[in-house]
Structure formats: C-alpha cells, structure tokens
Specification:
The chain is built from ten helices and seven strands. It is globular. About 45% of the residues are buried. Strand 4, helix 5 and strand 5 form a beta-alpha-beta unit. The chain has a seven-stranded mixed sheet. It has a single domain, classed as Rossmann fold (3-Layer(aba) Sandwich). The chain is of the alpha/beta class and about 270 residues long. InterPro entries: Methyltransf_11, SAM-dependent_MTases_sf. One of its GO terms (molecular function) is S-adenosylmethionine-dependent methyltransferase activity. Pfam families: Methyltransf_11.
C-alpha cells in the first residue's frame, strides 16, 4: 500500500463521482435539502462536499438569486467538483475551520461526511456558527454496518484478503450508526432540540465487479489506501461468491442502504 498522490486522488474522485454518486449518494440529496428547508434565494453551505452532488442539487433549488458553496479537505474531490460545476464556490477547508463569517448561511448540509471529521463536536459547532438564527442544519450519516447488508460482507472479504487497514477504510462510513450516541453528540455541540429520522435507501450497482471496483479504485484511495493491481484482481474474483446473494435477476447488485437524517435549528438571539 502507498499514500495517494494528487493524480491518485483525482482518479479516485472521478471513480467516486461516476460510480458511488449514482449508486448511493444522489438519491439522498432531495431528502437532505428538504430537511434543511432549502428554497429559492437561500444561501447554502455543503460541508464535506466531495465531488459536489448535493451542492449541484442545491444550486438548482436556490436559483440565480441564491448562493451555494462547498468545502472539502480533498483537492482531488474539489478538482472534479469544479469541473462539473464551475459556478459554485468550492474551497479547500476542513469542517472544523469553516472559512466563512458568523451567520453567513440560511442552511448548512453535510451529506455522509460527519463520520470522517477529526473533531466532530468542533465541526458541528462550526456549522452552527455560520448559520443565521433560525437557519437549518441537516446532516446525513449511514446506519450501522450490519444493517447495510452487502457492505458488511465486503468488509469481511477485504479484511481476509487485504488486511485490517483496507477493511477499516470501508467500515469508516458506518461508525455513527448509533442513534442515541448521535443525538448526544449534537446536543453536546449546542444543537438542541435535535431530530433524527432513519430512512432506508437502495444501493444499486450494475454488478458485483462494478460495486467492488468502485470501492477498491474509488473509495479506498480517497481514504489513503491504494492497493496493487494483483491484489485488486484477487479481491474482485472472490467477490463474485462473497456477494452473490445480493445479485438480482437482472444481474444488478441491490441491497438496503439505511441512513439517519439529523436536523437542528440555529438558536435565535
């Protein structure tokens, strides 16, 4: 394994946009934007924007009189985001230090990013800081790994063939699945009351090879894990049997993908 350079990061971000976004992430954009009550003319911040699918959807909603910005610490992700939507303001920054003044936004959204922040409490406080009084915060996190079906089976396969580091990179998105702990985290950051609603989405990949390759060539490099080609081919070969139960009659890989939608409101003065 080796640390990814910028070219690796951009390649990973392209794979993420082309494979993970349509299979997993795009379907959640309307849900999160509804939870944040995003409407025409709003100022919206997408935290941990990745390649920018949520920000792009928000830009359609707010229209020409609104404003959308996306922040992400990954230059590879932002390079792809900027190519796809050059009119959105993209900034390389962490959630723990948002580059905007207090009360800058009507809505702040974070779609499947909170689990990766080094200081989640500080990140939540920062999101609250840049919200205007009465503005809405909407955050999506994945449910527990064991409730995400095929991903649980893929983690077992990765740990056996590629080791704990690779498996943990795939476990990482699911570490905030406990709703009670999640609510306490938000309340401790000053977001109270907080509402958590669990919804079940559908993960849908064209086939096992496409799904697993999306992780090996897309997600793992984003997480700093680059596997050699020989190992990738070995994992892909064994994935056919390991994930076979999730293949539909049409040859697609289809399984439940539940997530928690957490919402809060910035307190009035």
């Amino acid at each position: 394994m080796q640390a990814p350079n910028l070219d690796d990061q951009i390649a990973g971000a392209r794979a993420y946009e082309n494979l993970h976004v349509p299979a997993l992430f795009k379907q959640w954009c309307p849900t999160l934007l509804d939870a944040a009550d995003v409407r025409a003319g709003n100022r919206v911040l997408d935290v941990a924007c990745g390649t920018g699918v949520l920000a792009r959807e928000a830009a359609v909603r707010v229209g020409s009189h609104g404003f959308v910005a996306g922040v992400d610490p990954g230059p590879g992700m932002l390079a792809v985001a900027s190519e796809l939507a050059p009119d959105i303001e993209w900034t390389e920054a962490t959630a723990e230090s948002l580059p905007y003044p207090d009360r800058s936004f009507d809505a702040v959204c974070c779609q499947f990013g909170l689990m990766f922040f080094s200081d989640r409490s500080l990140a939540l406080k920062e999101m609250l800081r840049v919200l205007r009084p009465g503005g809405k915060l909407a955050v999506a996190v994945w449910d527990r790994l064991e409730n995400s079906e095929a991903y649980a089976a893929e983690v077992v396969l990765l740990e056996r063939l590629a080791g704990v580091t690779a498996a943990n990179a795939l476990r990482a998105p699911f570490v905030l699945g406990d709703k009670h702990a999640l609510a306490n985290m938000f309340k401790a950051a000053g977001i109270d009351p907080v509402t958590i609603e669990t919804r079940t989405g559908t993960a849908r990949f064209p086939g096992i090879k496409v799904m697993v390759e999306a992780d090996l060539r897309g997600w793992l490099p984003v997480m700093g894990v680059v596997l050699n080609e020989e190992l990738i081919q070995k994992i892909l070969a064994q994935a056919e049997s390991a994930l076979g139960e999730y293949v539909s009659a049409q040859g697609e890989v289809v399984f439940n993908s539940p997530a928690h939608i957490v919402t809060g409101v910035a307190p009035a003065d």
